[in-house]
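Thread: Newbie trying to understand structure tokens

Hi all, I'm a second-year student working on a class project, and my supervisor (Dr. K.) asked me to get a predicted structure for one chain before our next meeting. I've only ever worked with sequences, so writing a 3D structure as a token string is new to me. If someone could post the tokens and maybe explain what I'm looking at, I'd be very grateful. Here's the chain:
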Amino acid sequence: MRRPVPALIALAVTAALATGCAGAAPDPAEPGPPALPVLEAGEANPMIAEGVSLVSGASLYKSSGLGPAAANPAAADSTPQAYVDAGQFPGGTLPPPGVTITEAQGMNVLARIKENLEARGLRLDDVTSMRVFLDNAPGTTRADYAGWNRAYRQYFANTDLTTGETVLVPTGTAAPAAPLVRNPARPSRFALEVASLPVPGWLVEVEVDAVYPAGVTPR
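---
Reply by user tm_fold:
Sure, no problem. This is what the structure looks like when written as tokens:
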């Protein structure tokens, strides 16, 4: 059964807009959210939180590092193209023109993160922090941070905090479109370039921390 949008997001965003910091003390008469993201004042669509305050006693879940699933049978094994999800880009060249290989792998990884969380009774909007490791795509000398950020916006931080409206996401050479998953959560996050990742062909590996909402029992 799909849970309603957790108080984590609704209360945290309200506090952020009112004070410029989502770490304000909750009303003692109401049960507070288990985590409060600290958001930069005046930003309607920030990508990440400056930090996240966890309430004492909150139940935490920490994923292992996950990379993209091998999902492109037309590509050679252990190549970056093998980890582009053909289901996310049906037909034609994978990835399609305008979508970088890191961006495509990032979308694949985040779909796996979503499945991992759901198996534990959690959702993407329960994520409070994220750690991202990026390898260089073949023929490049720098990690594709811009491509990763486009993939990230498909699953996180894609609502306007002032209006609540969904923010369109750039998708290759086409006009911006609705994200794959509407999610107002802005976790704390770091992303860094590494020399290699454990699986040949991986360009992206991600691990997350999530907090169980009130009333949801960890499993």
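A couple of things are worth pointing out once you decode it. The longest strand covers residues 127-134. The radius of gyration is 18 Å. Feel free to ask follow-ups in this thread.
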